[in-house]
Amino acid sequence: MYNLPQKVQAMVHSLNAKAEVTILEKVGDNDYRAEYQGKICTAIFNPFVGLFYVDDLYGVVSERK
Known about the structure:
The protein is an all-beta fold.
C-alpha cells in the first residue's frame, strides 16, 4: 500500500483533527505504528475516508528520546 516510513496527514486522537504524522511500519492487518511528536503510537487505516487514525492518548507504544 505505502512505501514506509512515509509522512501523511492523519487524524490524531488528542487533537480530534488532522496533523502530519510519520507512518513507520505495518505490524498486522490494519495495524500500524506511527510517530507523532516524538511518540510511537498505534494507528489504523480507514479506507472509507482514506485516512490513518493515530491514537496518541491510549495507544502510545514508546517515546523517542
